[in-house]
Amino acid sequence: MTTSIQIGTMKITALDDGESHMPPMLYPGLDFDAHPELLESDGTYHIPGACYLIQGEGVTVLVDAGSGPDSIPFPAELAAAAGLAPAPEFISVGGRLPGRLAALGVPPEDVSTVFLTHLHGDHVGWVAPGGKPFFPNAEVVYGAADWDALIASAPAEDPARTTMEAAEAAGVLRAIEAPTVEIAPGVTAHHTPGHTPGHYAVRVASGGQEAYLLGDAVHHPLQLNDTGISFLFDADAQHALRTREELLAQFADSGAAIGISHFPGLAFQRVSAQDGRKWTEV
Ligand SMILES: [Zn+2]
C-alpha cells in the first residue's frame, strides 16, 4: 500500500511497513460499541504502520522506520486483559518497508536522512535491525527527550532499545531539542510533545503548498471531534490533547495535507471546518 502527493516540487509517499492489531482498551474514551465497524473479526482494531518518503531535488528523507523485519506475537496477558479469545496471532506485523522502497526505485543507500517522529518500537524498527544500520548513508534524527524516556529506561532486550543503541554505536544518530529544526531544504521538524516527550511533527513546504506528517500526535480519526479519546501509550494524555487541539485548529481550512501514521488506508487528509470539523481525503 502506497499513496503519494505532490507538494510544490516535493513528492511525499506514504508506505506501510506493516500493521498492528490493537485491542479496544488501548483507546480510552473510544466507545467501540458505538463503532463496531472499527473492529475486525479477531476483536482488534487494525492500524497501518506508515513511513513517509520525502523526495525533492537533493532531498531523500524517510520519516519513521516502521516496526522492522520481525512480527510480534500477541501477548497472552494482553489478550486475557482485553477479553480476546482466541488471542490474535500477532499484535504487530512488519517487514514490508524494504519492498515498498524497492518498488519506488529507492535503494536504502539513497536515503540521506531518517527522521523519527518519536522512539516507540513501531517507528524505529528499520533503523538498525540485527545491529546494523539499514540505511547505510543516513543520519538518523530524533527528539532528544525520547532517549531517556523510552530507550535508556527500557529493558536491555527491548527491540527499540537494541536498534537505537546499535545506531548510536554506529555513530549515525543526531538528537534535536529546539522547537523547530530544519531537516533538509523545505523540510522542518516541529516539537509536538505529549504522545512522547520528544515527539516531533514534520512540515514539508514547497511552492506555496504545505504538508504535515504528524506521527502519533493524532492517533485516531475520531479524535478530530472528540477530545475524550486518548491512546493508552500517550506518555502524557493531557499534554497530548493540548498539542493535538493546537495542531487541528491550525490545520482547519488551511489547505495543508496531513499524513498520520496510524490512520486507516494511509490517505493524506485535510481538515475542513465548515459545519463542524471533518477529514477530507486529499
Ligand atoms: Zn505509533
Salient structural properties:
globular; Metallo-beta-lactamase, Chain A; five-stranded mixed beta sheet; nine-stranded mixed beta sheet; binds zinc ion; 282 residues; 16 strands; alpha+beta; 31% strand
Topology:
Blueprint: E1 2-7, E2 10-22, E3 45-56, E4 59-63, E5 72-73, H1 76-82, E6 90-93, H2 97-103, E7 113-116, E8 139-143, H3 145-152, H4 159-169, E9 173-176, E10 180-184, E11 187-191, E12 200-206, E13 209-213, H5 237-251, E14 257-259, E15 269-272, E16 278-281
Parallel strand pairs: 4-7, 7-8, 8-9, 13-14
Antiparallel strand pairs: 1-2, 2-3, 2-6, 3-4, 5-6, 10-11, 11-12, 12-13, 15-16
Bound molecules: zinc ion.
What do these coordinates show?
The chain is 17% helix and 31% strand. It is an alpha+beta fold and 282 residues long. The protein has a single domain, classed as 4-Layer Sandwich (Metallo-beta-lactamase, Chain A), CATH 3.60.15.10. Strands 1, 2, 3, 4, 5, 6, 7, 8 and 9 form a nine-stranded mixed beta sheet that branches. The protein has a five-stranded mixed beta sheet with strand order 10-11-12-13-14, with no helix packed on it. A two-stranded antiparallel sheet has the order 15-16. A hairpin with an 8-residue loop joins strand 11 and strand 12. The longest helix has 15 residues. Bound molecules: zinc ion. The site of zinc ion has 6 residues, from loops.
